């Protein structure tokens, strides 16, 4: 193959093939509306024949815009964050913006290189999804471009928009539901130190105290994964004050609790009711059928995209030094993992 044959086709090659000017090809590649359908199709057909791809990096340098948003995701294995990401991406894409995704943690610590890499790539905005520990480098990076955080209380900074679930209200709703079913020995697996975990613990404890059941409060530490959920639920089920219901930090921990109940020989929900949080697709799997608090994850992502685009446009009310906060009210989705306690397990 000769050098001429191997070289990458250029905009000039497309123009010659289509029989149009270079400037017209440029207009078509930018999606400009002032091009007739016939000419647009001629240019696109020539580009397909030649295998031409626009040099987006060069174009962004000329235009001063990359039309790209960097998204730092706390944990790409957590389906809750993926649901938020889905809503964010679809909304941004519909408005001509691309998304670059980076994992926010490395060895359980914030990866400082992710935000730095995004800024090197000249992203026009940043979004943080999930419960990342506070990191000064990331916080500083969010000062340099329009930024928004979703479902994280660690980065609710004065200059950043945030779209967060009312996590405290969510576990309060779950606890109230179990209380109305007749449960009193209700436990919570979670209680971590990050903002989301703290808020979810407060909601549970507040509801228990409001009903005069502070002496029944049990919080067993666990993280946002199935393994720690299993360990925490197993510890509760081995204890002297075995609960009749467990509210998990999230769905993954809730699945761990389901496994712990099964290994302990307990039937769900006859012997033990379990509620998760995040209402991920995992909770709806038929053989799990986990009741779960729905934080409207996709809607959170969509609203975060709207807030970010308003900052990019410089809309009124989106001043760089003033961040807005949207608190999204959750709702409980009841499935087969919850029921009234057995008569012989009720507490007078």
From TrEMBL:
<dbReference type="Pfam" id="PF00356">
    <property type="entry name" value="LacI"/>
</dbReference>
<dbReference type="InterPro" id="IPR000843">
    <property type="entry name" value="HTH_LacI"/>
</dbReference>
<dbReference type="InterPro" id="IPR046335">
    <property type="entry name" value="LacI/GalR-like_sensor"/>
</dbReference>
<keyword id="KW-0805">Transcription regulation</keyword>
<feature type="domain" description="HTH lacI-type">
    <location>
        <begin position="9"/>
        <end position="63"/>
    </location>
</feature>
<protein>
    <submittedName>
        <fullName>LacI family DNA-binding transcriptional regulator</fullName>
    </submittedName>
</protein>
<dbReference type="InterPro" id="IPR028082">
    <property type="entry name" value="Peripla_BP_I"/>
</dbReference>
<dbReference type="GO" id="GO:0003700">
    <property type="term" value="F:DNA-binding transcription factor activity"/>
</dbReference>
<dbReference type="GO" id="GO:0000976">
    <property type="term" value="F:transcription cis-regulatory region binding"/>
</dbReference>
<keyword id="KW-0804">Transcription</keyword>
<dbReference type="InterPro" id="IPR010982">
    <property type="entry name" value="Lambda_DNA-bd_dom_sf"/>
</dbReference>
<dbReference type="Pfam" id="PF13377">
    <property type="entry name" value="Peripla_BP_3"/>
</dbReference>
<keyword id="KW-0238">DNA-binding</keyword>
């Amino acid at each position: 193959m000769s050098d001429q044959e191997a070289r990458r086709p250029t905009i000039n090659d497309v123009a010659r093939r289509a029989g149009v000017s270079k400037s017209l090809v440029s207009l078509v590649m930018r999606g400009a509306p002032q091009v007739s359908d016939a000419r647009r199709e001629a240019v696109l057909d020539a580009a397909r024949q030649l295998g031409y791809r626009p040099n987006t990096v060069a174009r962004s340098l000329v235009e001063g815009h990359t039309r790209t948003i960097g998204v730092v995701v706390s944990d790409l294995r957590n389906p809750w964050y993926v649901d938020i990401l889905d809503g964010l991406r679809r909304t941004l894409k519909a408005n001509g913006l691309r998304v670059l995704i980076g994992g926010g943690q490395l060895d359980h610590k914030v990866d400082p290189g992710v935000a730095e890499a995004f800024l090197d790539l000249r992203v026009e905005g940043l979004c943080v999804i999930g419960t990342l520990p506070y990191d000064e480098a990331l916080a500083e990076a969010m000062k340099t471009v329009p930024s928004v955080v979703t479902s994280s209380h660690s980065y609710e900074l004065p200059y950043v928009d945030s779209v967060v679930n009312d996590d405290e209200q969510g576990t309060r709703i779950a606890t109230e539901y179990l209380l109305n079913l007749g449960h009193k020995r209700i436990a919570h697996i979670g209680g971590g130190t990050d903002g989301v975990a703290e808020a979810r613990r407060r909601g549970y404890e507040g509801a228990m105290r409001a009903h005069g059941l502070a002496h029944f409060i049990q919080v067993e530490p666990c993280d946002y994964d199935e393994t720690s959920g299993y360990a925490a639920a197993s510890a509760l089920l081995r204890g002297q004050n075995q609960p009749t219901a467990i509210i998990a930090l999230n769905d993954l921990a809730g699945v761990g609790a389901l496994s712990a109940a099964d290994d302990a020989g307990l039937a769900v929900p006859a012997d033990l009711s379990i509620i998760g949080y995040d209402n991920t697709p995992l909770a709806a799997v038929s053989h799990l059928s986990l009741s779960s608090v729905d934080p409207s994850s996709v809607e959170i992502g969509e609203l975060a995209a709207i807030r970010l685009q308003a900052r990019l446009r410089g809309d009124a009310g989106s001043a760089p030094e003033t961040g807005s906060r949207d608190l999204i009210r959750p709702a409980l989705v009841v499935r087969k993992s919850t029921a009234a306690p057995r008569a012989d397990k009720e507490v007078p």
